[in-house]
Request: fold
Amino acid sequence: MNVVSLAFRDPVLLAKQCATIDVLSEGRLLPAFGIGSPLAPEWQALGIDTRTRGRKTDECLEIIRRLWREESVDFNGAFYKLKGVTIAPKPVQPELPMWIGGSTDAAIRRTARIGTGWQAGGDPPAEAGRVVAAIKAAASEAGRSIDEDHYGAGFAFHFGSLNAPAVGRAIDAYAKRTGRDATHAFAVGDVDTILARVAEYVDAGVSKFILRPLGSDDDAILAQTRLLIEQVLPRAVARWPRRSKAITTDR
Reply:
């Protein structure tokens, strides 16, 4: 997945799941949370009002953050009420990362207020750049800062043709689910095509990527992944070498 849509989930269970994954991975979990597209079919399937998803998400985020840090949590919100809740074990990371997804004004404020990073949804590079700038400004106003390399985006890729059946199905499903033009959300072609899409996002201030291979079956998806590793990553590393980062204290 790109980000976890919180309004679909129980915050206590999710906090426990995230903490467990962090323990099992020895502190390598990097979760991202969002409110989900209002056009997604899950809302109707589960009978959930899309108009409440932002407020439910804010309550979920507060509950999760507190459960990661506190021994016992009481909470009295509009959607969730808890008494003496605890989870164990706690995450390995003393401050578990909390990346926030979404490009609305509310998502920007949410990221600036509590986020340690931001992950774009289906935003094209220009829109991602606008959101990155807005988050930086809002975080500064809130007396916070987010690391420069903690802004992410994602897109699907395929080495080959737009006529490939798996590509056509994925594009149709994306357009139906989001109501957006699928052009920016897919990079289909050769190495240069994929690198060019990455470069558009890098120029907009994005440096973390979730790239999703498209293929008709597991073998095809693995083959696409190998091509990405063997052909794209070496050129990406040479073009955008990793910058060393000074160690900072918690903000």
Observations:
- The chain has a mean pLDDT of 91.
- The radius of gyration is 19 Å.
- The first strand starts at residue 4 and ends at 5.
- Residues 168 and 208 are 26 Å apart (CA to CA).
